[in-house]
Write a structure and sequence with these properties.
The complex is a heterodimer of chains A (109) and B (110).
Chain A (H helix, E strand, L loop, with lengths): L3 E2 L5 E4 L4 E7 L7 E6 L6 E6 L3 E5 L2 E6 L4 E6 L8 E8 L4 E3 L3 E6 L1
Parallel strand pairs in A: 2-11
Antiparallel strand pairs in A: 1-3, 3-8, 4-5, 4-9, 6-7, 7-8, 9-10, 9-11
Chain B lengths: L1 E3 L2 E4 L5 E6 L6 E8 L3 E10 L2 E4 L7 E2 L9 E3 L8 E8 L8 E2 L3 E5 L1
Parallel strand pairs in B: 2-11
Antiparallel strand pairs in B: 1-3, 3-8, 4-5, 4-9, 5-6, 7-8, 9-10, 9-11
The chains are: A mainly beta (109), B mainly beta (110).
């Protein structure tokens, strides 16, 4: 069974701080990695995708991938209360997508 | 991506089809269920018309993909353990591309 692991949280950060979310995966053959945000009662929406080792930045979000360590992370700079949500790590597993259980982020004003 | 219905309550054994449609001409469509503590788990997926395959939790479900835009999920004899939040998703071509999720169907089986 291919696995994707995340700390369930909640991760609590003050407004304006950096939030760091982590994810590990078991399938060494995975090539595509995604971070989705899910507000309570809503459907997931894509925040970032990353396909090669290193960092990828998009506005306040930075995704980091280390395939050797089988590790993906998401940094959110200048966290806002509107960033409070559950963040889901998803890993491509050959025609299927495996999701982690999600990390609940709470940004306190 | 649209899903109907938004909410549904069924009795055990009362068959039901959850509808999913997309108007983005996407090749790939899939169904997930989301349960507290278990996260999102893939039920079935379809790479293209007439091509479907099992995900991680296919037991108790059937699918068909007769046309590109529709991917219904069939529960022929639902049981209480199929009570869940169901999401349909589609993407341009497979799992290397962004998945667009529907709004979800909350299903309760009593």
């Amino acid at each position: 069974q291919k696995e994707v692991e995340q700390n369930s949280g909640p991760l609590s950060v003050p407004e304006g701080a950096i939030a760091s979310l982590n994810c590990t995966y078991s399938d060494r053959g995975s090539q595509s990695f995604f971070w989705y945000r899910q507000y309570s009662g809503k459907s997931p929406e894509l925040i970032m995708s990353i396909y090669s080792n290193g960092d990828k930045e998009d506005g306040r979000f930075t995704a980091q991938l280390n395939k050797a360590s089988q590790y993906v992370s998401l940094l959110i700079r200048d966290s806002q209360p509107s960033d409070s949500a559950t963040y889901l790590c998803a890993v491509d597993a050959g025609n299927m997508l495996t999701f982690g259980g999600g990390t609940r982020l709470m940004v306190k004003p | 991506v649209t899903q109907t219905p938004k909410f549904q309550v069924l009795k055990t054994g009362q068959s039901m089809t959850l509808q999913c449609a997309q108007d983005m001409n996407h090749e790939y469509m899939s169904w997930y269920r989301q349960d507290p503590g278990l996260g999102l788990r893939q039920i079935y997926y379809s790479m293209n018309v007439e091509v479907t395959d099992k995900g991680d939790v296919p037991e108790g479900y059937k699918v068909s993909r007769k046309e590109k835009r529709n991917f219904p999920l069939i529960l022929e004899s639902p049981s209480p353990n199929q009570t869940s939040l169901y999401f349909c998703a589609s993407s341009y071509q497979g799992t290397a591309y962004e998945q667009y999720f529907g709004p979800g169907t909350r299903l309760t089986v009593t």
